[in-house]
Write a structure and sequence with these properties.
single chain, alpha+beta, Immunoglobulin-like, ten-stranded mixed sheet, 2 helices, binds copper (II) ion
């Protein structure tokens, strides 16, 4: 019957659209551009930079960051006071609804404390972010620190 066929086709379109929508909705938080400036082998503490975008209508809260390659990972905010730069540990980080937070030199950064293995240019470090009950796994690449200095020239 023609009508029956027509309706089943509509059904397929409907299901497809619905499935597509739910795939997008399951990835409302994106963590991108993660990288770690290369450091000399003796240096045990490294910094991590990245971007977190929250396209949901609600604030999200990052409660923990972990990596198998480091003993501890903290979220730090660099603040300048009387010409001195100090780093303040953040117990959690709020990424407001429909906005983006950028971790960069001289501001928010990950403090990767006590590395457990040698890390050189090109190596990947897996970072695990806890956002409420969700977990996000991000690969951060170790890159030449010179790139970092160059891109932040305007701060000097
Ligand atoms: Cu720090």
């Amino acid at each position: 019957m023609f009508l029956k066929k027509y309706f089943s086709l509509l059904w397929v379109i409907f299901v497809t659209l619905f499935a597509t929508t739910s795939i997008q909705a399951s990835e409302p938080v994106k963590i991108t551009d993660a990288w770690i400036p290369e450091a000399p082998p003796v240096v045990k503490v490294m910094a991590g930079y990245l971007k977190i975008s929250n396209s949901t209508a609600n604030d999200i809260v990052i409660t923990q960051v972990k990596s198998a390659d480091f003993e501890t990972v903290e979220i730090h905010q660099t603040v300048e006071k009387d010409g001195m730069a100090r780093m303040l540990k953040q117990d959690k980080l709020v990424v407001p609804a429909d906005s983006e937070v950028v971790f960069q030199r001289g501001g928010l950064h990950l403090m990767l404390i006590n590395k457990k293995r040698a890390l050189k240019k090109g190596d990947k470090v897996i970072l695990n972010f806890s956002v409420g009950k969700s977990r996000y796994r991000v690969a951060a690449e170790v890159k030449e620190a010179a790139i970092e200095d160059h891109s932040h020239h305007h701060h000097h």
